[in-house]
């Protein structure tokens, strides 16, 4: 079980959160073209290592959080707000 440290509520079980997707993708510019939007909507990597993710604290403050989580060990490196810049640790799988 994940224990996610919400910046607003403190450390909580993962059951209070809902995964909301990959936080590393950026919306392309409006004139970027159909291929860029196709990649933005449908193409995702499946990393074995550190990953930046969106999690919403649905049973708490209901805020959207940016979480740096290791997909193999489930270790959480950092939790921040949507505008926070989170640097992932070096790959050490
Ligand atoms: Zn919270």
UniProtKB/TrEMBL annotation:
It comes from the Bacteria. This is Sarcosine oxidase subunit delta. The lineage of its organism: Bacteria, Pseudomonadati, Pseudomonadota, Alphaproteobacteria, Hyphomicrobiales.
